[in-house]
Amino acid sequence: MDIVGGIAFLTTRRRFLQAAGASAAVLAGCDLGSRKRGPDSPNVVVIIADTLRDDHVYGDRARTPNMDALVREGLSFTRAYPEAMPTGPARDSIFSGQRQFPFRDWRDWRDLPESPGWEPLDSVEHAFTTVLRQAGYWTVCATDNPFLGFSQPYEPLRASFDRFARRGGQLGGRDYGVSERELRHWLPPQFRDPTTRERVYRYLANGRYSNDETQSFAARVFRDAVRELEVAEPRRPFAMVVDTFQPHEPWTPPRKYIDLYGDPDYQGPEPARPRYKLVDNYLSDAAREVFLPRMRALYAAEVTMTDRWLGVFLDRLHDLGLDRDTVLVLISDHGFFLGEHGYTGKSSEMLHPELTRVPFVIVDPERRSAGRTSDYFASTHDLAPTVLSIAGVAAPSRMDGVDLSSLFSRDQPPRRDYAYGGYSNSFYIRTDRWAMSGVNRPSDFQLYDLQQDPGETRNLAEKNPGKARELHSIVERRAGGRLPYYPDPDDPPA
Q1: For the chain, which has fewer Cβ within 10 Å, the N-terminal or C-terminal residue?
Q2: Mean per-residue pLDDT, 292-297
Q3: How far is CA 179 from the centre of its chain?
């Protein structure tokens, strides 16, 4: 047990740390005797943490001893950019091993947000978990992701697992039991539009964990994962996806976590759910001075609490003697603005690294490349072919992600001179020298010279139109032609 700031973190006791409600399980029928078994094949565990910024894992913005342990034991990609965002498109990319952007032929799906890219997998039988199951792996998922776990379009994916343990309550559920005083504590007046008020009300009704972190959604998911791990252990090899929606906002962590990062004497309301807006559009100068530091403290606190429950899962993995027989992957779908570039939340038209760069760590069972970093332009759709390769299972030909496992033997993966992808109706491209994003129409390019302006503060698109056209043409060529644009009914005529 590790003590940080008075908080006890359950962590693995050997290799993974050398320094400092009810769930529903869906069992898809299978005949274990008819499967080909590979007792010497490595297990696979993929951990997805929603809305996790890479500077809170690789940097010192948050205390994450368990994630730090994975970084020490694994190969970390310091330039990992999801090729499709946000939540749903990123998971399609992770499971399929295929690029999802530029969301061609997208249509609105019931139970999913009405935004380009939000659609179910087009081929569940080619998901990496299904491929592993067909190769003899026992497959399981534990999640509280409201879309992956409960929306109708993802039912075929849920049914493709041997077991699927899901937790509800992130978006809906109970509608009673929250006092006005409690709601006002977590939602200052500047944040109280009707939609946000309803969201936070239901979140509090389903997850009152500010005084009992065992009721947090991360705690529930990782405890479910522990139970599923115990079911999977005698059925090795197994493949497990643990998909926690935390640290996605709202943030209502216990005060002991907040005080690691914020003023311990603060007595005001907590901005648990920032607006997805320019700060100047909803906070005065005086309010900004109070709430921006508080948002950062709340987010870091939520990351630290999520890490603590990740440690519970890793500890059990070690206790079962599985840590040296398992491929472990940590990844996220996107980050979150905490005042950078004058913005809070997420915006498809502000594709800066605070939103678009994520942690991506792969721990090899033999600990090859332990503690190393790579600046290769890695992406979410690389995960599937990589874990299949380490497991010794052939990847479907339709997977167009890169097998990153070659880096474990110090070989080089295929050359990739840039990262590109998109979010809704926008695209981005990043090279060693340049970063650019824009709306798919195309219009409103934002171009930054990373050598002269690493903070991406000076838009050079008007001064350097040739470079903007060059980068845009690369994206269009790689994306198979002109990028689609899906107009909103409220958009002005083109």
Answers
A1: C
A2: 98
A3: 32
Residue 450 tokens, joined = 């990373």
pLDDT tens for each residue of 99-138: 999 999 999 999 999 999 999 999 999 999 999 999 999 9
> pLDDT tens digits for 240-289?
999 999 999 999 999 999 999 999 999 999 999 999 999 999 999 999 99
End-to-end CA distance of the chain: 60
3-state secondary structure 243-257: EECCCCCCCCCCHHH
Of 83, 132, 67, residue with least CA distance to 380: 83
Contact 9, 1 (CB under 8 A): yes
Amino acid 491: pLDDT: 56
- Residue at token pair 């493709």: 160
Give the single-character DSSP code of 396. Answer: P
Percentage above 70 pLDDT, the chain? 91
- CA quadruple 225, 228, 230, 232: dihedral sign: negative
Distance between CA atoms of residues 453 and 44, nearest Å: 40
Summarize pLDDT for 390-440 with one digit per residue, the tens.
999 999 999 999 999 999 987 889 999 999 999 999 999 999 999 999 999
Rounded CA-CA distance 224/217 in Å is 11
CA nearest 9: which of 71, 74, 63?
63
Two tokens, residue 182: 């409690």
CA dihedral 340, 345, 349, 354 (to 10 degrees): 50
Is residue 430 within 8 A of residue 418, CB to CB? The reply is yes
Supply 434's token pair.
């340049």
At 17 the pLDDT is 34
Q: What is the pLDDT of residue 488?
A: 79
Is 381:401 a contact under the CB 8 Å cutoff?
yes
Which token pair is 26?
A: 């869906």
Rounded Cα gap, residues 233 and 44, in angstroms: 12
Q: How far is CA 126 from CA 38, 42, 87, 105, 264, in A?
A: 20, 20, 20, 20, 50
How far CA 292 is from CA of 284, 299, 340, 492, in Å, comes to: 11, 11, 10, 33
Band of pLDDT at residue 172, cut at 50, 70 and 90: confident
Q: Is 373 exposed, middle or buried (0-12, 13-18, 19+ CB in 10 A)?
A: middle
Which alpha helices (DSSP H) does 207-332 contain, by range?
A: 217-232, 255-258, 285-319
Residues β-bridged to residue 277: 344
Q: Are 162 and 140 in contact (CB under 8 A)?
A: yes
**Which single residue is written with the structure tokens 């939520």?**
302
Tokens of 306: 């999520």
